[in-house]
Design brief:
A hairpin with a 2-residue loop joins β3 and β4. 48% of the residues lie in helices and 12% in strands. It contains 20 helices and eleven strands. The longest helix is centred in the last third of the chain and has 29 residues.
């Protein structure tokens, strides 16, 4: 286990007085991204500016990380990895840690109801919001939401837990907190507000009105490539640290965090530690979601079909590299409104980051939860192109690649594990349809993903069918090569 007293001298450790930290933030979703991103920014602020804003970390499902974090004094290692260097930092800004299942939901609600808590943030991925991605509406058919409506004091879902804590704080006369989503969704603050207010309106319209007046939901844009840890990475860090750290996380050196400055009970001065505080986050969110995440998903599906395990492997293929850059600049950038941003320079910086061989970002990892990601990464851009009569062939190829991928077998006929909230529905539609246009029609008919419009748009459907046929007949590599040569 990690012990700060025995670390090598070149490992940066928390030299500030951790006893002065106050638990003023609660974060739900103690995953790799949060550990390498928001928590690092807050740790820098404590180290460089004497901030006393500490985190209570909560995992609702997996308890192993929380147990390990407790065993090593609420500290963990962040490894910033580039091709030629490795920088290690021990983060000490965590003040408490809870596991929803073993500690109980009452302990979670009490942590959220402490008077000092001013911000509740979360990284739970798109599926954690229990909403329909195409419309943003709360999914009232979600079994967890059904439970929370029937048992509001013992909630199971993220919206239910936050709502129960808001109600408890109001009833106790405590100041409201701000609810800050750090997940990859456009206007993630608006999405979070909508699902919580819609859930509240099902229980108490008066509480829903109170939330609308008293609670703020700042939007954010977060950017840092944080691949899943592997056994190889863990071994490399253990050698460097001289001990094991099961909570360690690896990431690229790049960091960006853009935050809507809309907090009801105060906030840390994150801008002093590298964050940007702005009035409108949406242009930054859309830029990142479409250019970075959109190209990542393109490489994930097409690259995985082509046999590339990592994004850096895709970058070693000149045609995939060109396709990703063309997707960003020719088919995503025109849909954006980002005054003062050099999008060509941004695209080139993304290609350079993707090429970092030290970051083993698995295409299969990025391919997870596609039904929740496609609307904001590709489909909004496709709608823009349809409205403007412009080309979107790379985006159509991406959709065809997703359909090919969720078919459940790779180009060699080997089974592919599909991790997606709609995996059962996807498998059902795949099993009930033949390869080709029937398969495409069945999957484009998922209204919660594609809405009511795209499946009925002849231009869109024909382009997807065209590229799906090419993927079946000649494979992903050749299809990408031909399209790049033609564009």
């Amino acid at each position: 286990m990690l012990c700060c007293d025995t670390l090598p001298p070149d490992v940066q450790r928390p030299l500030y007085n951790r006893q002065l930290l106050r638990t003023r933030m609660v974060h739900i979703g103690f995953g790799a991204f949060h550990r390498a991103h928001q928590a690092v920014c807050s740790d820098r602020l404590a180290a460089e500016q004497g901030s006393d804003w500490g985190y209570c970390e909560i995992n609702l499902n997996s308890g192993e990380l929380i147990a390990a974090l407790r065993q090593q004094g609420l500290c963990y290692t962040v490894a910033e990895m580039a091709d030629d260097r490795l920088n290690l930092r021990v983060t000490g800004v965590v003040t408490a840690a809870l596991h929803g299942q073993s500690d109980g939901i009452e302990a979670v609600l009490e942590a959220l109801s402490q008077p000092d808590v001013a911000i509740v943030s979360m990284t739970v991925t798109e599926k954690g919001y229990c909403h329909h991605p195409a419309s943003g509406e709360l999914n009232l058919e979600h079994p967890g939401i059904g439970h929370d409506l029937a048992h509001p004091d013992t909630p199971q879902t993220l919206p239910g837990i936050i709502l129960a804590a808001i109600r408890r704080r109001r009833d106790r006369g405590l100041a409201p907190f701000s609810v800050m989503s750090c997940d990859n969704m456009p206007e993630n603050g608006r999405v979070t507000r909508r699902v919580i207010v819609e859930l509240a309106s099902q229980q108490s319209p008066e509480l829903a009105d109170w939330i609308g007046q008293q609670v703020t939901f700042p939007s954010t844009m977060v950017d840092r490539i944080v691949p899943a840890m592997t056994g190889e990475t863990h071994r490399a860090l253990s050698e460097k640290l001289g001990c094991e750290d099961p909570v360690a996380v690896a990431c690229e050196p790049f960091f960006q965090w853009v935050i809507e400055d809309n907090f009801v009970s105060g906030r840390p001065q994150w801008e002093l530690a590298g964050a940007e505080l702005v009035a409108d986050v949406l242009p930054f969110e859309e830029m990142k979601l479409r250019m970075l995440n959109g190209s990542h998903s393109f490489l994930a599906y097409l690259g995985n079909l082509a046999g590339y395990q990592h994004i850096s492997d895709c970058m070693a293929d000149a045609h995939f590299r060109t396709a990703a850059r063309q997707l960003m600049l020719d088919q995503q950038a025109p849909t954006l409104r980002t005054p003062g941003v050099d999008l060509t320079a941004y695209a080139d910086s993304l290609i350079a980051r993707y090429s970092n061989r030290a970051i083993k970002h698995r295409t299969a990892q990025i391919a997870n939860d596609g039904s929740q990601k496609l609307p904001q990464r590709w489909l909004d851009s496709i709608r823009w192109h349809l409205a403007h009569g412009s080309r979107f062939d790379l985006l159509a190829l991406g959709v065809a690649g997703w359909i090919r991928y969720v078919g459940g077998r790779d180009e060699q006929g080997q089974p592919v594990t599909i991790n997606d909230p709609l995996s059962a529905e996807l498998a059902k539609r795949v099993a009930e349809t033949a390869e080709g246009e029937p398969r495409v029609a069945a999957l484009l008919g998922l209204k919660h993903v594609f809405g009511d419009d795209l499946a009925g748009n002849a231009t869109f459907v024909e382009q997807v069918n065209h590229y799906y046929r090419l993927l079946l007949s000649q494979g992903a590599k050749q299809t990408v090569y031909q399209l790049v040569a033609r564009v």
